[in-house]
Design brief:
With 196 residues, this protein is an alpha+beta fold. 21% of the residues lie in helices and 34% in strands. It folds into two domains: 35 residues, no CATH class; 145 residues, tt1808, chain A, CATH 3.90.1570.10.
């Protein structure tokens, strides 16, 4: 599958093609989309978060990076979030042994090409995962992390919090706190254009 291709196939066909592909693809109700490449800053932020969260996680929780697939069976979608945290045994999808159906936290690092989907349609799909307790959006152009936390139970109510500048980001569902300076360690933000 080429980088610019948008293909139609069954989920079983997608899994066969994905196994043979050097590029990752997302799946949505029969449509397959090649994932865009990332910037160095995007990769650095994701690896900083992976390390910071992993070093703080306790108990039965693990954090994994963007090579792990999430399967949203309720909406027939498969994605590769930048990070996900799974607590307790990982449950595979009924139709995909590598597709995780029970993430507790999903993290997406925003980019120009994905931000609209990450904030909109993709978040709508993620909300259908009953185990999901937090959805986290991490800015790439400034030190800002947005956390959407599901209210107790399987509620449709999500609380919003934001960490900016030199603050901390709190992953309440897994009892982890990470300073933003660790999230953005080594990241050089582009200077804002001057008014005039």
């Amino acid at each position: 599958m080429g980088a610019a291709e948008k293909l139609r196939m069954t989920y079983a066909e997608y899994l066969v093609a994905e196994e043979a592909s050097e590029t990752k693809h997302e799946y949505l109700r029969g449509e397959v989309f090649a994932m865009a490449g990332t910037t160095f800053e995007h990769a650095l932020i994701a690896s900083n978060l992976l390390r910071a969260i992993g070093n703080r996680l306790a108990g039965p929780c693990v954090v994994v990076g963007s090579d792990a697939r999430v399967r949203i069976e309720a909406t027939d979608r498969a994605t590769y979030p930048d990070l996900m945290i799974v607590c307790g045994p990982r449950h595979a999808a009924s139709d995909d042994r590598h597709g995780t159906v029970n993430p507790k936290v999903i993290v997406e690092v925003l980019s120009d090409s994905t931000e609209r989907d990450d904030r909109g349609e993709k978040f709508a799909h993620y909300r259908q995962i009953s185990s999901l307790r937090e959805y986290v959006l991490v800015a790439q152009k400034e030190a800002r992390v947005e956390v959407f936390t599901r209210e107790a139970g399987d509620s449709a109510v999500w609380r919003f919090s934001e960490a900016v500048g030199e603050g901390i980001v709190r992953f309440a569902s897994v009892d982890v706190v990470v300073p933003l300076d660790e999230v953005y360690r080594g990241v050089a933000f582009a200077a804002a254009p001057a008014d005039g």
